[in-house]
Amino acid sequence: MVLAILIRFSCFIAVSAAPFSFNDNPIGNGFPMIVNPSSQLTAVSIAALGSLPNLPPPPNAPSADSLTSLRLIAFNELFEVAFFTELLSNITNNVMGYEIGGGEDARTFMINALTAVQSQEELHVLNANGAITQFGGEAVEPCVYNFPVSNINDAITLAQTFTDVVLGTLQDVVSLFGTDGDAALIRGVSSVIGQEGEQNGWYRTFLGKIPSALPFLTTSTREFAFSAIQGFVVPGSCPNLNSIKLQTFEPLTITTGNPEPRNQDLAFSVQISAADDWKSSYSLTYINQQNLPINTPITNVNIVDKTVTFTANFPYDAATFGNGMTIAAVTNSTGGFTSANDVAKVTVFGPGLIEIS
Ligand SMILES: *[C@@H]1O[C@H](CO)[C@@H](O)[C@H](O)[C@H]1NC(C)=O
Ligand SMILES: *[C@@H]1O[C@H](CO)[C@@H](O)[C@H](O)[C@H]1NC(C)=O
Q1: Phi–psi pair at 184, nearest 5 degrees
Q2: What lines the ligand 1 site, CB under 6 Å?
Q3: Are the beta carbons of 163 and 200 closer than 8 angstroms?
Q4: Rounded Cα distance, 62 and 206, in Å
Q5: 144 to 9, 107, 232: CA distances (angstroms)
């Protein structure tokens, strides 16, 4: 079966439910406020089926740029814990839209799997924040979150999409650890890349897709992940967001729903603050797999008040472009990019996330 699913991270469908706050954690395990470190950590480790790394820490403090990566990881993992905590609570409590069909075994399997994922993500947070505080840095604190989903299928589709972004972004993080002289951090984060890949194979299978999306997963950059995750954060709710020194792009919305795997024009929209904020020098750039980013001209621009709508070709090719996750960005450039980082440097609006599998 060929499925094409598209998520608009930045454009919320109105949901009536209250935003998620750890102050009101429905699982009630106190995370991320550790009151009794040894007993709480033991309980989390049992649920996670394993422990925090206990190897000796790196001898030297991470570079400032590596600390930025660790902060981004903590920020992302906190968001993931929030998501899986609420998802697990929805399923456990048979919230409407979260009733698991297929008998009691299927429901038990889902709860067991998500209980492990939720606790494993908690350990990912503690590991990243631990690496920051080890050398005197300030731990990243959780925000209040809103998830634009209200049924199990949309929730798992969202989990698959943000995990794709993470799997792309950790490629950027480990490359930077290498160039920043922090090779000692690469092994542990690489173990998490595989771990998140295992999760994603299950999310894909749940959605009726084959487990492995691509031969080489789509790459991303820290800035794209940082911008995308902020789409789930209640503005102003993060106590120390400004400790994460990364650029945030303006949101890009893809208005074409569920693009098919074929060459086609996609419709987009962005919000601007003044009419001359939209430049004729902009184009639409796609990042897919480990390939050269593709630049396409922006067409059919229409500016009404502060909303800009436009189209751009999506040059799908079954062999070379467009399967799995594609990151779309409005860039102030005419292309010639040789990496995702080149794209991020000139991105104005993004990321738009396209999923085809
Ligand atoms: C849990 O269910 C509520 C009510 O439908 C919904 O608003 C929320 O987004 C759901 N959370 C997740 C993570 O699926
Ligand atoms: C776009 O690029 C041009 C040429 O490089 C530069 O002069 C201009 O400041 C850029 N505009 C924005 C909004 O980034």
Answers
A1: -65, -20
A2: 15, 17, 83, 86-87, 90, 95, 97, 147, 149-150, 155
A3: yes
A4: 39
A5: 16, 28, 9
DSSP element (H, E) containing 352: strand 347-356
Residue 239 burial (CB count, 10 A): 11
| Nearest residue to 192 (alpha-carbon basis) of 169, 213, 161, 220 | 169
SS3 sequence of 273-286: CCHHHCCCCCEEEE
Give the pair of three-digit tokens for residue 327.
């990151």
Residue 12: per-residue pLDDT: 37
Substitution candidate for ligand 2 out of 298, 332, 348 with most atoms within 8 A of CB? 332
pLDDT confidence tier of residue 276, bands split at 50, 70 and 90: confident
- Atom nearest to 346 CA in ligand 2: 14
Ligand 2, CB within 6 Å, residue ranges: 279, 281, 332
Pairing, β 299-304 against β 294-297: unpaired
- C-alpha distances (whole Å) from 234 to each of 12, 146, 355 are 12, 7, 25
Q: Is 356 helix (H, G, I), strand (E, B) or coil?
A: strand
pLDDT band per the 50, 70, 90 thresholds, residue 15: very low
For residues 188-196, average pLDDT = 98
